[in-house]
Amino acid sequence: MKNLIKKINWTKSQGLVPAVIQDADTSAVLMLGYMNKESFAKTLKTKKVWFYSRSKQRLWMKGETSKNILNLVDIKLDCDNDAILIKAKPVGPTCHTGAYSCFKENFDPNKLLELFSVIQERKLKMPKKSYTASLFKAGLDKISLKVAEEALEVVHAAQKQTKPRLIEETVDLIYHLFVLLAEKDISFKNITDEVGKRR
Known about the structure:
By secondary structure, the chain is of the alpha+beta class. Helix content is about 45%, strand content about 20%. It has seven helices and six strands; from the N terminus they run αββαββββααααα. β5 and β6 (about 85-90) form a beta hairpin. α3 (about 110-125) crosses α6 (about 165-185) and α5 runs antiparallel to α6 (about 165-185). The longest helix is centred in the C-terminal third of the chain and has 21 residues, at about 140-160.
């Protein structure tokens, strides 16, 4: 990746090149920013994604205030060498609105990855009044027990209750299962990769 800085056409847009950020695990497009040579070099050096802010006229690292950083995985150039594709692993939501992606209206699948991302953020930041954070504080045994309880509630709802109640209990189970996976440092991609093997 170090040789890419020489290949980029920095003169075409007065020293700035658009950089599309893509989630390395899901391939979802997260945001668009602009880079100059210095921010590109800092990205390579720190393995955190840096940009050049056209409004503030300075370099800035994504997440320098929010802590929602982008960990560099890979960089590719387009065919004209004047646009950058960066694959990264986001820590928390990427958009300043708190959404997983700045292109939220195009994001799927069924909000599950967004939920998983929020849960991972809670584990990282451990906010005081967060139920999710309280589960992480309680530890693996407590989280495992909650998954078992929610699974039983799903079965009970399927056998004895209404479809809307079954849907609600299913969502509760998915949420607590995601907390368990995050506790064990299992990524959403680990799960989707395994699903792909079973087709």
